[in-house]
Amino acid sequence: MIKQELLDILCCPETKADLVLDGDFLVSTDKETRRRYRIEDDIPIMLIEESERLDYEMWAEIMKKHDRAIG
């Protein structure tokens, strides 16, 4: 599990947007890129080329679940 202190300093390497912890993934709050980074053995894999781009509906659902504005 990622500690809150680490989550507070991590950001999306592509856009520098905040991230939300969603299960075994960190999801960028940037609505244009909608990147999702996996976490393996409690280590976030923060490589853009290893990330997944979510479709808008899935990203919006995650943002709502974490009380983030979709704007």
Output the keywords.
5-stranded antiparallel sheet; 2 helices; single chain; alpha+beta; N-terminal domain of TfIIb; 71 residues; 25% strand
Q: Domains counted in the coordinates: how many? A: 1
Largest sheet: 5 strands, antiparallel
What is the end-to-end distance?
A: 29 Å
Provide the structure class: alpha+beta
CATH architecture: Single Sheet
| CATH topology group | N-terminal domain of TfIIb
Indicate the proportion of strand residues: 25-35%
Task: Give the low-confidence spans.
Answer: none
Under CATH at level 1, the class stands as Mainly Beta
The whole-angstrom Rg is: 11 Å
Average pLDDT, rounded to a whole number, is 95
Give the tally of β-strands: 5
Number of separate helices? 2
